[in-house]
Amino acid sequence: MTQTNIQHIIQHGSTELKAIAQKVKANERISDEDAIYLYNKVDVATCGVLANFRREQKNGLNTYFNRNFHIEPTNVCVFSCKFCSYSQDYKHKEEGWELSKKEMLDKVKDYDGVPITEVHIVGGVHPKLDLNFFAELLSDIRAYRPELHIKAFTAVELDYMFRKAKMTALEGMQFLKDNGLGSIPGGGAEIFATEIREKICADKCDADRWLEIHEATHQVGLKSNATMLYGHIETVEHRVDHMKRLRDLQDKSGGFQTFIPLKFRNMDNDMDNVIESTLQEDLKVFAIARIYLDNFDHLKAYWPMIGRSTAQLTQSFGVDDLDGTIDDSTKIYSMAGAEEQIPVLSTKELVDLISQAGRIPVERDTLYNVI
Ligand code: V47
Ligand code: SF4
C-alpha cells in the first residue's frame, strides 16, 4: 500500500515533490530546501505518505512504549522561559515545591513490585540543589533498585549544575554516569535559533551549550533524546534549522535515540496570546521530522501532551514511539493545558491504543531493547 502511494507521488507530483519522494524511496537524505518545500507547498496527507514510508523502512509496523514514571524534584526555577506555566521563581518559593532526597526515594519505593523499567527525573533549575545533591540521589536510587534505568536532567539543568561545580560538560557527565545516570532526556532544546531563544527563553543555556552537553553525554557512552518546542513564534525555517543542527550532531556522535516534537500549549503562561497550532500543522511537524531526520531511529509523540486520539493518528505520520505509562506527577504539561490532565494509561490501554491504530505494540526499555 505504501509502495503504491509513494509511486503515485513519484508519477504525479511536482518536479520538486517527485525528487523528494524519490529520495525517500531510495532511503536517501533530503535537504533543508526539501524540508522547507514540504512545509510550504505540500499537503499534510502527502507528507504523511512519505513519512510513513520512512517509518516503515526503519521500524516496520512496530510502535514502541515503555513502563516508566516521573519524578519532578522541584518547580522552583532560576530561569524565566515565557512559555513555561510551571516554574516559580525562587522569591515566590511558597508557591513552589521542593522534594528531599528521601521523598524522591520514597516515590521509587512506591513502585516496589511494579514492573517499571525507567524513572524519568526532570524539574526546574533550583539555585540550591547542586551536582552533589543529584549525584547522591542517583546513587541512592541505584543502590535501592539497580536495574531501574535513570533518565534524568535536561541539558539546561545540567548546564547549571556543571557551571556551579566548575566542571566541564565531559567531567560532569562522567561524574553523573559514575553515580548511576543511565541517559538524559531531550528537554530544554526549544528552538535553537538565537533570535527565537532571545524572545522565549533568553536567560537559559543557548543552542551551542545544549548541543555540547548532548555531545559530552554521547562521548561518555550514554544516549540522549532531543526535543523541539514548536507552534509558537518560530517559522518553518527555524524548525528546519533546529533539525539540521541535531542531524549534524547525530552524524558526528550518534548518541541520539529519539526526536520528540513538543506542541506549545498556551495556558497560564506569558505566551497565552499565541494561538496554538492546528492538528494539520502538528501532523506535518511529525511527518517532516520523520522524513528529514534520517539518522534518528525513532520519532516520539508524547501522548499526555497531545491526547490519545492524536497520538493514534501520529502513528500514520512517522511516529513509532508513544513513550510510556506515566503517573500524574508530570505537571509541566498539565499546567500548560495539555490534553491529558491526569495522564495515566495502563499498559493494557496503551497496547490497545496502538493495536487499534493498526500497529504492533512493542514494549521496550529505555535503550530500545525489546522486553
Ligand atoms: O524543554 C514547557 C516543554 C520540556 C511547555 O526525552 C512545554 O523522553 C509545551 O523535554 N507547552 C521538558 N511544552 C520535557 C521534555 C520531555 C518530555 C517527554 C519526554 C522526554 C524524553 C522529554 O517541556 C521543556 C519544554 O520544551 N514545555 N512548557 C508548554 N507550555
Ligand atoms: Fe525553568 Fe524549564 Fe520552566 Fe524554563 S521551561 S522556566 S528552565 S522549568
Which secondary structure elements does this structure contain, and how are they paired or packed?
Layout: H1 2-12, H2 15-25, H3 32-41, H4 44-59, E1 62-71, H5 101-109, E2 118-121, H6 131-144, E3 149-152, H7 155-165, H8 169-178, E4 183-184, H9 194-200, H10 207-219, E5 223-230, H11 236-253, E6 256-263, H12 279-292, E7 298-299, H13 303-306, H14 308-314, E8 321-325, H15 331-334, H16 347-356, E9 360-363
Parallel strand pairs: 1-2, 1-8, 1-9, 2-3, 4-5, 5-6, 6-7
Bound molecules: ligand V47 and iron/sulfur cluster.
Keywords:
binds ligand V47, 371 residues, TIM Barrel, alpha/beta, globular, binds iron/sulfur cluster, single chain
How would you sum up this structure, described in words?
The model has no long low-confidence stretch (mean pLDDT 92). The protein has 2 domains: 2-49, no CATH class; 57-363, Aldolase class I (TIM Barrel, Alpha-Beta Barrel), CATH 3.20.20.70. It has 16 helices and 9 strands. Helix 7 packs across helix 10. The protein starts with a helix and ends in an 8-residue tail after the last strand. The chain is globular, with a radius of gyration of 20 Å. It is an alpha/beta fold. Bound molecules: ligand V47 and iron/sulfur cluster (SF4). Ligand V47 is lined by residues 83-85, 122, 154, 185-188, 190, 225, 227, 229, 260, 262, 264-265, 269, 302, 323, 332, 336. Iron/sulfur cluster binds next to loops.
